[in-house]
User: What shape does this take?
Amino acid sequence: MNQLVKKFNNFIKKTIFNVQNKTNDKLQIFKTKNKTNNKLLISKFNKYLITLISLLFFYLFYLSIPILYNKNWVQKNVENQLLKDFKIYFSLSSDISYRILPSPHYLVKDSKIIKEDDKTVSLAEIKTLKVFISQKNFFDKNRMELRRIEFNNANFTLLGNDLKTLKKSSNNKFSNKKIKIKKSKIIFKNNSDEIISVIKISEAVLFRNEDNLSNLFKLQGEVFNVPFNFDYNKDIDSLKTEEINIVAKKLKLDFFNTHSFNDNNSKGRNIISFLNSKINTNYKIEDDTVIFGSSDSRIENSNISYNAKMSMNPFNLDLNVSLDNHDLRKVFNKDFILNELIRTELLFNDNISVNTSINTSPNLRNKIFQNAKFNFNISDGKLNINKTRLINNKIGSLEFENSNLSYTKNLLFLNTDISVNIKNYNKLFSLLQTNKKFRKPITNILINLDYNFLSKEINFNSIKVDGKKINSELLRIIEGFNNNEINNWNKSKRLLNTFFENYEG
Assistant: This one.
């Protein structure tokens, strides 16, 4: 029995040890395999990482190849490429450096755009010019290609004759490689080298759009403190039709123009939208003269027709307008576009000449005046409304002379003489319901006053009745009109009757 138990114990021990040994062997094998796999994985990762680093290094080395190009060769070659691609004559400085980021390009400082026919004349001075190049052919420098160019802090100077050259250039297809312009200026001068205006460019882009086959020029900028967007689109197929869209939100102005042209003249149509008004104009251009007119336009709820002649160099405008049942008092309403234009100081320019005449129909809704003719003139940087007339068919007329519109410290003022010509004083007194014992013959009243368009206050400087200056007592009575904001017809009649009661004649 003892012998049997001993044998059984030996069998159990052998069995357990065998299982343990096998398990340990398997675990050892498994561990060995894991180490091998890990080594394999680590080995593969290292290979990928090394390969990736090598490729990156090689790519950076490849991108750096243009650094090795001779600068004189780069300067000459880039000038030739710019002329070939953009038809622009550049004069590049020797201050050229190569940059990889954000995209491979040459950075050229203090460059110029020069005239084709006179290389000594500069059209633009460019503080920083970036010439972006294609990455395809760095091993062969002779196959270098430009992708796009970018101007920064450039000043473009254009004379009157240069505008004709630009106009002619727009008849050619633009390059499909973009020209970008940032933080620059366009300085317009007349042929006497006098500055007419300056356009500040925030951003602009010029290129050929292959999708809709058109030349495009887009600009965001500012002129006379007025921000605006300018879009130019010209059909490539015919190069005889173009569209222009200008939006100035500050003036609530949207201008759209389309026209076609030939070698001798051009004609077209534009649409101007501002506030609640819409102006449709047909026009014709011959040389530097524009003749235009409209018979299908509206200002607010009034029909309007007009005709005009405008020359560009120097700028001169003669405009005649007819309004159907439009109250001219709205011309100086605080929201009227003329006020906004005056506030931009755009019109206070020695190089602008304007003669505008606005006539109303006999249906003017006014208790006193049935007809009106409003004149707005600009000459030598000064604005006036001379020869403006308000007419009462039965009583007489009121005419503005020696007037001056000025804009100082954000305030718009009018100083003017007003001549009141009375052809029938009995009709005047009847309108005012003046007591008969105070009715005296009067033919003319001459007033000099200042008017503040913001506060609507009137300040009377002097008044003459039939050539005689009135006394201080009568002037105090008339000063009751000073606050035009609260003036109404009943108050006006009361003040005028008080005046005539105290007027001794």
About this structure: The chain has seven helices and 25 strands. Confidence is low (pLDDT under 50) at residues 1-9, 11-27.
